[in-house]
Amino acid sequence: MSxxxxxxxxxxxxxxxxxxxxxxxxxxxxxxVVGNFIALCIxxxxxxxxxxxxxxxxxxxxxxxxxxxxxxxxxxxxxxxxITRQRxxxxxxxxxxxxxxxxxxxxxxxxxxxxAVECWLSIGHPYFYQRHVNRRKVLLMFPFIYLFSxxxxxxxxxxxxxxxxxKTYSPHTxxxxxxxxxxxxxxxxxxxxxxxxxxxxxxxxLSVMISLLKMYKLSRKQKIRCASFEGAExxxxxxxxxxxxxxxxxxxxxxxxxxxxxxxxxPVTVRTYIGASQVSDNDEAKDLLALRFLSVNSIVDPWVFIxxxxxxFRTMAHKLYDKLCHTRARHSVQQGTPDKPAQQQDLAA
Length: 349
Description:
This protein is mainly α. Helices cover 74% and strands 2% of the residues. It has 11 helices and 2 strands, in the order ααααααββααααα. The protein has a two-stranded antiparallel sheet with strand order 1-2. Residues 1-9, 232-243 and 337-349 have low confidence and may be disordered.
């Protein structure tokens, strides 16, 4: 959604400034809906053409549906404000809008964390994954994510303004968490939760990358050892591309979505802690910039998935991954080569 940085005069004003156009918000809304719809079509075509749909794609489908529902529920309220030229009213309207923003944002974060954990288990703990992880259990996880997010976004309404509240942001067509004192407790709690989710997602993804590199290195060593026994030391050993193709696909997609998520979420997390030490709204422009980043996340995610599903992009990603792993493996082999001539001389003797 589009936001501007003007104060728009008196807080008692009920109309939106004429300089604020509906076009940016309408364009972003259209991009979000169209992107999520195309992503869903790709996912369901994959389900129709595949004999087995992985747990990872179930989670991706849940993420796309969540982003799409968020756009369909929240964005029309913004467009209605522009069409009627009326500000979003404080009280029930503002609370509902802010709670919905937090709800859908948290749901997306938890689903992204579930995707990272699924990828970590499937690669790092395959035996546990095969026995305990399946599509039915993953589907049962979604109601718990939605319930927790619903309870969390309702905390300001339950505990009162002293704990936290939702407030309107310029151009007064949307609401979000108040980040300044004396309503900072909820914003700090929200920032701590999102910060923890960011760290966990990044940690799981890094662990998956390390595991894949180790698997590549081990597989390459085995092929080199087999080639040496066969007297084919000069034979080119190919990377085990096909053996881990699905895992690499999942990792690359998850890494791309995670990078977008971190870029969009970190500014809000930082601003919540900075706002906790402030009383005035002199830095509202910075808050608005951070919230603008956060609102773009659900628009970019489906387009990242659409681009990733193209054969050209996936081929380039696989080649980049193979080149990276080949460079690391060759460096490791070169470090161990000085001992090989001595070993060959001993065998010849």
